[in-house]
């Protein structure tokens, strides 16, 4: 068996170690802080040739050089950290490219945040400030560092961390300290020195001040109102009964390394420190659909206008990383059913491989009805249930959790679902203050500021080839008074389409049912006479609310429009630029498009290798129901075939049957069901005794009467045995009753002929023995 990794496989632990060794040799004698060691994906033109050869089952595949992209920090001449990017070619055991990224900053990780937190709490100035708060005895101060979101107040060439202060009332480490935000924050420099301390505003109109105020002890409230952890709350409800997902014949998917095959789908699973889960070479029934799908960025701008809160604007991928913040998913908790886990690999600061276990889970889910029709003339119904394949990853970034999942359907559709949960990031507000216009008071002295979550899904299509176009389709009412249009009753409407010719950003329009289709103009559906394609089913969202002149807007250009269309470029993977930490703006997708606008060859996107970017999210104006932990807020978008097939691609999914699905009837609680089951069994045994008593009597009428009673009892028993028989129990009882029922109905149908009488009695005795033995 070959041990050579596929060109799209994430780096192995051995490759991470090797890449670190190669880079060390380029910086002999210097202390290196390895920030990133990840796969550098092969050039697209080379990889496409490789993938096509692979799908043709060519005996010899093209050779592709496997490379790693490495980021390291080292101390410069002036003592500042300097960031370098290097490309390592494994076959040459050498650095083939090196770049000094002057003024750029790498992401932040938990280890660095811990250093910032400890340095901040240990600072003498901070200790003095904490003493002025006069905190309750036994309470502890929690410092939560955030990346500094640019506001124009500081030099961004060196890293700054903002430290927000909270109070934890108890020694329990799971206590919700967001319930007690303190009116203190501090700036910590790259050298781990506290450079500034602020006293925060505690009313809607107050500004930063230097007045020392003690903590208001009246803010302390009942734990039931602000604690979420079960150890700190009353006992949970007991009304929820167990729900088991059982697949007795195993799952329908097959896994070979990173290659997934399910139903008619095939694709490769990727994973990296920044994007987390990525999908590659996505095909349905062998036909190419998408080259690459990934979440490219997420920006969380806060809408509290009071300084220093405009510094709260988090790029949770660019600044923190979806991969390195991925949860270790738990069997039976985060995912249900038969689960396949994919591990991720990152690196330590010293360049050693670091395992991220169970970072991605893959499993199947029932998704309701796929399609159904009842013929009203015959009464015959055909119903097919939908099965979806789910790939899910969950990340925790400070207070928030995000659940990202791709859903593959049997109808050749792909849905991407984001769920936001976790705890609101809070700010202090004085008791008795009115609700400010930019937040919600969720507990005594606790303000939850308004904020947005803006995601960007990067869609790199390959609709039966790399040359694709994007079409805008709108639905319009047909004119009623136009002599050239036949619409005498005013009910007609039509679609109007326009091809996107050049790179640009676009908005959604519900009033026109605006749809964005990705099509292959070289491939026409013979029936519809239109190009084959897939359409984006968008997640309708409000775009960025910050003023265009703000740093929030300048840094997150993709938030201006819901859809962007660009030409593929190898170095254009992230809509806010490659390095978002303390970025100043001008490096995002809008700026890139503007720079290329005058060059028709560069800006043209029709019949080109295009990329579609979809911006979506939520304007989260917190409710009291989001406290103390937020129920999931769900956002869904889709990619659906449009005239790509010759019929419904889910038509060949088998109709649903009770025999397969094993659904049961509701009959009260379990105790009552058990009582009913026992009663039905006793009734059958009584009827069986009556049948035996008249078996040899010449009076056939008595036997028939006993037979009818037994048959009804058998039907009652079968209903409940189906409910209670487990997969491990023998099915002989059910089989025997099915035989009894079949012979019984035959006996009745043929007018109670004596020839079937003894066969029926024989099977009835078998059923009786099974019941007594059970």
TrEMBL record:
Keywords: Copper, Disulfide bond, Metal-binding, Oxidoreductase, TPQ. GO terms for molecular function: copper ion binding; primary methylamine oxidase activity; quinone binding. Pfam families: Cu_amine_oxid, Cu_amine_oxidN2. Its EC number is 1.4.3.-. The active site is at 316 (proton acceptor), 400 (schiff-base intermediate with substrate). The modification 2',4',5'-topaquinone is found at residue 400. Topaquinone (TPQ) is generated by copper-dependent autoxidation of a specific tyrosyl residue. Its cofactor is Cu cation. Residues 244-650 form the Copper amine oxidase catalytic domain. InterPro entries: Cu_Am_ox_TPQ-bd, Cu_amine_oxidase, Cu_amine_oxidase_C, Cu_amine_oxidase_C_sf, Cu_amine_oxidase_N-reg, Cu_amine_oxidase_N2. The keyword Glycosyltransferase does not apply. It is an enzyme of class 1 (oxidoreductase). Homodimer. This is Amine oxidase.
């Amino acid at each position: 068996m070959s041990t050579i990794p596929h060109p799209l496989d994430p780096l192995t632990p051995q490759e991470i170690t090797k890449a670190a060794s190669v880079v060390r040799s380029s910086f002999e004698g210097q202390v290196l802080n390895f920030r990133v060691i990840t796969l550098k994906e092969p050039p697209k033109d080379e990889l496409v040739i490789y993938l096509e050869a692979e799908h043709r089952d060519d005996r010899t595949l093209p050779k592709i050089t496997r490379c790693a992209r490495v980021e390291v920090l080292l101390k410069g001449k002036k003592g500042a950290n300097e960031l370098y990017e290097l490309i390592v070619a494994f076959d040459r055991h050498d650095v083939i490219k090196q770049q000094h990224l002057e003024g750029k900053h790498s992401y932040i990780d938990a280890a660095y945040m811990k250093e910032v937190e400890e340095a901040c709490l240990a600072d003498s100035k901070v200790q003095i400030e904490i003493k002025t708060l006069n905190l309750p005895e036994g309470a502890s101060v929690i410092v939560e560092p955030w990346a500094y979101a640019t506001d124009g107040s500081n030099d961004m060439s060196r890293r700054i961390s903002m430290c927000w202060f909270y109070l934890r009332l108890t020694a329990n480490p799971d206590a919700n300290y967001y319930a007690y935000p303190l009116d203190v924050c501090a700036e910590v420099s790259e050298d781990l020195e506290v450079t500034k301390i602020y006293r925060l505003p505690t009313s809607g109109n107050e500004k930063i001040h230097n007045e020392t105020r003690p903590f208001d002890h009246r803010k302390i409230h009942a734990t039931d109102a602000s604690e979420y952890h079960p150890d700190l709350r009353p006992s949970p409800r007991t009304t929820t009964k167990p729900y088991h997902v059982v697949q007795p014949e195993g799952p329908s998917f097959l896994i070979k390394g990173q290659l997934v095959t399910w139903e008619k789908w095939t694709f490769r699973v990727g994973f990296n420190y920044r994007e987390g889960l990525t999908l590659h070479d996505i095909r349905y029934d062998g036909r190419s659909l998408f080259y690459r799908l990934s979440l490219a960025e997420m920006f969380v701008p806060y809408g509290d206008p009071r300084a220093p809160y405009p510094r709260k604007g988090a790029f949770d991928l660019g600044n923190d990383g979806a991969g390195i913040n991925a949860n270790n998913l738990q069997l039976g908790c985060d995912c249900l059913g038969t689960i396949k886990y994919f591990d991720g690999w990152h690196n330590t600061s010293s360049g050693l491989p670091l395992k991220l276990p169970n970072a991605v889970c893959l499993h199947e889910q029932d998704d309701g009805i796929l399609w159904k029709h009842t013929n009203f003339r015959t009464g015959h119904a055909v119903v097919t249930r939908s099965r979806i394949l789910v790939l899910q990853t969950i990340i925790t970034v400070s207070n928030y959790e995000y659940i990202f999942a791709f859903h593959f359907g049997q109808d050749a559709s792909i849905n991407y679902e984001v769920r936001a949960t976790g705890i609101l990031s809070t700010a202090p507000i004085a008791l008795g203050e009115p609700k400010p216009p930019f937040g919600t008071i969720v507990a005594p002295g606790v303000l939850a500021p308004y904020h947005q979550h803006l995601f960007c899904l990067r869609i790199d299509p390959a609709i039966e080839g790399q040359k694709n176009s994007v079409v805008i389709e709108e639905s319009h009412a047909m004119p009623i008074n136009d002599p050239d249009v036949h619409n005498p009753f005013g009910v007609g409407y039509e679609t109007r389409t326009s091809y996107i010719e050049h790179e640009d950003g676009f908005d959604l329009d519900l009033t026109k049912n605006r749809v964005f289709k990705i099509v292959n103009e070289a491939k026409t559906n013979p029936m519809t006479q239109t190009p084959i394609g897939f359409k984006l089913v968008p997640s309708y969202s409000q775009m960025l609310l910050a003023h265009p002149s703000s740093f929030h807007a300048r840094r997150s250009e993709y938030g201006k429009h819901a859809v962007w269309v660009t030409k593929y470029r190898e170095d254009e993977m992230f809509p806010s630029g490659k390095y978002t930490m303390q970025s100043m703006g001008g490096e995002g997708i809008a700026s890139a498009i503007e720079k290329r606008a005058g060059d028709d060859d560069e800006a043209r996107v029709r019949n080109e290798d295009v990329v579609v970017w979809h911006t979506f999210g939520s304007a989260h104006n917190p409710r009291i129901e989001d406290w103390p932990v937020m129920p999931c807020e769900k956002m869904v978008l889709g990619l659906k075939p449009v005239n790509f097939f010759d019929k419904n691609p889910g038509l060949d999914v088998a109709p649903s049957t009770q025999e397969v699905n094993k659904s049961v009837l509701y009959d009260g609680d379990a105790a009552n069901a058990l009582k009913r089951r026992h009663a039905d069994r006793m009734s059958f045994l009584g009827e069986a005794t009556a049948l035996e008593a008249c078996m040899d009597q010449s009076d056939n009428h008595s036997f028939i009467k006993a037979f009818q009673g037994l048959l009804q009892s058998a039907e009652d028993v079968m209903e409940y045995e189906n409910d209670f028989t487990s997969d491990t129990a023998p099915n002989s009882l059910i089989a025997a009753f099915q035989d009894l029922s079949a012979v019984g109905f035959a006996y009745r149908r043929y007018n109670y002929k004596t020839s079937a009488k003894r066969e029926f009695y024989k099977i009835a005795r078998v059923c009786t023995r099974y019941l007594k033995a059970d």
